[in-house]
Amino acid sequence: MPPIVWQPGRFYSYSNHAIALLGYLVEQISGRPYQDYINANILQPLDMQRSSFAQPPPPDLADDLAVGYQYHKGNYKAVPYLYLNIAPAASLSATATDMAHFMIAHLQQGRYQNQRILEADTAKLMHQTHFKPHPKLPGTSYGFRESLVNNMRAIGHLGSLRGYSSSLTLMPDQNIGIFIASNSFSGIHSKFLTQFFDYYFPVDQNSTPVQSLDPSQVELERFTGTYRDMEYPRHTLAKLAGSFKHIHIKKGDEGNRTTLNSMVARQAYFG
Question: In the prediction, which pLDDT does 209 show?
C-alpha cells in the first residue's frame, strides 16, 4: 500500500487505486468476489445480460468482445486482451444496450423498470457536485465528472485502455443519456459530443458573451513559477524523473505568449 501523502478531505485527485480499494472493501464486507457481488446487485437487476467484470469475459461473452486496435507506424494493429489488477476501476466489458439500462436507472433516480439499485436520495447525492477547483469551473460528483458545455450541465465518465475508448454522458435535467464506445484508443466521443451539443443545445446568440480576460503584468507575474501534478511520485524510483515533468511558467516578450510542449517538460510563456 502506498503511504498517505495528503490527509483525507484536503484535496481531490482522480484515483484508480481508490476505486480498486472500494472494490476490495465490497469483497470484505459482502464476503463475495467483487464481480459476483456487482453481477447480483447491479448487472442482473438492470438486465445487463451481456456485461461482466470477469477477466477475461466468460466464454458466452468472450466471442463477442470487439478486437481493440492501436495506431502504430501508419497502421491500425490488433492488440491482445489486457488484464488489469485494478479490476473495479477498469475491467467492465459491456454492450451499448446494457449501458443504456444503466443510464436509464440513473436518470430515474436508481430505478430501472420494476428494479431499484439505488435509493432516490443516494442517486441524487451521486449526481451532485461535491468538489470544484474554482467556482466557475466544472467539478466532480461521486463517480462522475461534471462538464459545462454551451451553458448546459452534464455528468459522465470516460474510459480509455489500450485499443478501446468509451464515454458515458448524463444530462439529468433533460433526461438524456449518451454512451459511445469504439475499439481504438483515441475514440470518437469528443468530436461527437461537441457536435451533439452544438446542434441540439446551441449557445443562445442573445446571451451576454463571456468577457475575455485582460490581466495586468502584475497579475500575470503572480503565476510565474514551477508547478507539478498532485500525483507526483515521492516514494519510488519514478521520483527521479518527476522533475522533468514539471510545468514552468515564465514571463516572455511583451505582447507575446507561447506554450511549448515536450515529453520531458512543459513551459508556458506570457508577455
Answer: 67
Cβ-count burial of 43 within 10 angstroms (0-12 exposed, 13-18 middle, 19+ buried)?
Answer: buried
**If you write DSSP's letter for every residue of 136-182 in order, what string do you get?**
TS--B-SS-EEEEETTEEEEEEEEEETTEEEEEEEEGGGTEEEEEEE
pLDDT tens digit string along 137-169? Answer: 899 999 999 999 998 999 999 988 889 999 999
CATH 3.40.710.10 placement within the chain: 16-200
The amino acid present at 103, given as its one-letter code, is M
Arithmetic mean of pLDDT, 232-242: 76
The predicted pLDDT at position 265 comes to 39
Give 103-146 as a DSSP string: HHHHHTTTEETTEESS-HHHHHHHHS--B-SSTTS--B-SS-EE
- Which superfamily is assigned to 16-200 in CATH? DD-peptidase/beta-lactamase superfamily (3.40.710.10)
| Residue pair 51/97 in contact by the 8 Å Cβ criterion | no
pLDDT given at position 259: 39
pLDDT at 214 over 90: no
